[in-house]
From TrEMBL:
Organism: Winogradskyella litoriviva
SUPFAM superfamilies, A to Z: UDP-Glycosyltransferase/glycogen phosphorylase
Protein name per the record: N-acetyl-alpha-D-glucosaminyl L-malate synthase BshA
PANTHER family recorded: SULFOQUINOVOSYL TRANSFERASE SQD2 (PTHR45947:SF3)
Residue span(s) of domain Glycosyltransferase subfamily 4-like N-terminal: 11-180
A Pfam entry, by short name: Glyco_transf_4
Length: 375
């Protein structure tokens, strides 16, 4: 199949999933066209059946807001005509499903039919899309999609609760390429980051409010009172400055390392002992899955799709949002004894196998095939 993938090309989970999906589909013989405003961060290697088409939005001083959706839908039309794209798979409803629908209408006018598969990732539903300003457009775009998928059962429920949806929603969980997380380093270079007797705790996110970064730091503060430990904070975002101040206020600057955005997540997870994800809401929690695939147990909240990913008492522990004491105690329970830690590490790896891309990507292929058959 010739598939046009539209996504946010940044470090956010939806862009990562879209990119990894496109790369795997290309390995399975499909021709993939990424259509977005810059090259997706995880799209390092272009091959003969992976293409990237940049959407340019000409700056015009008359416009206070430059019309990205318009540029995107025109680009989609052009790319279909140029490359014979048969299907659009858009990740994130806003504005991608909306722009794809416009493109579909323009193409239909010329007798070209291109169905749309929309994948909902969470923030487009729970945080942004349900805002009254966007809700009618989001509802419309979802209902006009030819197939709709969501990354967890929990997100499906939220979507049906928040919007008047007339379509079936197929749950296709996020996935992981387990080979990429097989330790290929003979030495994780752990000593570069911490002393031999210290546990390494990691958090990776885009440092938005929803990630509850102060909770990450407070949990770590409690842990390091009980055992020697270092905290690796990976990512950039609006909460980072506040995090730096809190670390200073708590007097733990020598134990917290801010690593910024990284393309070497597997390297960082290789030397990590525990992953913290105390989010307010999380439709899936791809970062937790990536940690587990590297054998890193997860302390998370029990919100949204996280209980579908992290199994309480097996791959880590789940707590209520804001339950800092509980999360700290669970972390110490895992970290203070090496046998327990090793058991949780092995369990985390086992749990991640449920999301092996070899089982999940065919689910998308089946949806594409069934959707195309209807036209
Ligand atoms: O979590 C973020 O801030 C990024 C966001 C996104 O839109 O890319 O992630 C969402 O999609 C990911 C991939 O499906 C999920 O793993 C995340 O849980 C989800 N984030 C939220 O629901 C807050």
């Amino acid at each position: 199949m010739k598939i046009g993938i539209v996504c946010y090309p940044t470090f956010g989970g939806s862009g990562v999933v879209a990119t990894e999906l496109g790369l795997e589909l290309s390995k399975r013989g499909h021709e993939i066209h990424f259509i977005t405003y810059s090259q997706p961060v995880r799209l390092e290697l272009l091959s003969s059946n992976v293409h990237f088409h940049e959407v340019h939005v000409p700056e015009y001083p008359l416009f206070h807001y430059q019309p990205y959706e318009l540029a995107l839908s025109s680009k989609l039309v052009d790319m279909v005509k140029l490359h014979g794209i048969e299907l659009f798979h858009v990740h994130y409803a806003i504005p991608h499903a909306y722009a794809a629908y416009m493109a579909q209408q323009m193409l239909e006018d010329e007798g070209i039919i291109v169905p749309i598969v929309t994948t909902l990732h969470g923030t487009d539903i729970t945080l942004v899309g349900s805002h009254p300003f966007y809700k009618p457009a989001v509802t419309f775009s979802i209902n006009k999609s030819d197939a709709v998928t969501s990354v967890s059962e929990s997100l499906k429920k939220d979507t049906l609760r928040l919007f008047d949806i007339k379509k079936d929603i197929h749950v296709v969980p996020n996935f992981i390429d387990l080979d990429k997380h097989e330790p290929k380093f003979t030495d994780c270079q752990r000593l570069m980051m911490a002393d031999d007797n210290e546990r390494i705790i990691t958090h990776i996110s885009n440092f938005r409010e929803v990630k509850r970064i102060p909770d990450v730091i407070k949990i770590f503060y409690n842990i390091q009172k009980e055992l020697p430990a270092k905290l690796m904070l990976v990512g950039e975002g609006p909460e980072k400055e506040g995090a730096e101040l809190l670390v200073e206020e708590l007097g733990i600057t020598d134990r917290v390392i801010f690593l910024g955005n990284s393309n070497e997540i597997d390297r960082i997870l290789c030397f990590s002992d525990l992953f913290l994800l105390p989010s307010n809401t999380e439709s899936f929690g791809l970062a937790a899955l990536e940690a587990m695939a590297s054998g890193v147990p997860v302390i998370s909240t029990n919100t949204g799709g996280l209980p579908e990913v992290n199994e309480d008492g097996f791959s880590g522990y789940l707590s209520d949002v804001g339950a800092i004491k509980d999360m700290s105690a669970n972390a110490v329970k895992i970290l203070s004894d090496t046998n327990t830690l090793n058991k949780f590490k092995a369990n985390a790896k086992t749990q991640s196998q449920k999301f092996d891309l070899h089982n999940i990507v065919p689910m998308y292929e089946k949806i594409y095939e069934e959707t195309l058959k209807r036209f």
